[in-house]
Design a protein that fits this description.
Elements (H helix, E strand, L loop, with lengths): L8 H27 L3 H25 L5
Length: 68
C-alpha cells in the first residue's frame, strides 16, 4: 500500500531531523543490547535502524541533502 502526501521542503526537513534523532537512539540501544548479549534486541534494533536509514536516504534525496 502506498500513501501519497504533499509536504513542503521544511516539513520534510523536520521529518529528517526527527528520524535522525530516532536513528541515534536505535544505534545506542543496539550497542547496549550487544553489551548485554541480548541477541534478540540487537536484531530488532538493527532492523529498525536500517529501515530508518533507508527512509532518511529517500527523504534527503527529495530535498537535495547529501547522506550524512
Amino acid at each position: 500500500m502506498a500513501i501519497k502526501l504533499t509536504l513542503t521542503e521544511d516539513e520534510v526537513g523536520i521529518l529528517v531531523d526527527a528520524l535522525e534523532a530516532d536513528l541515534e537512539g536505535y544505534v545506542e540501544a543496539t550497542k547496549e543490547a550487544r553489551g548485554n548479549n541480548n541477541r534478540a534486541d540487537v536484531e530488532t534494533f538493527t532492523e529498525a535502524a536500517t529501515r530508518i536509514g533507508e527512509m532518511l536516504k529517500r527523504l534527503r534525496a527529495l530535498i537535495g541533502e547529501d547522506d550524512e
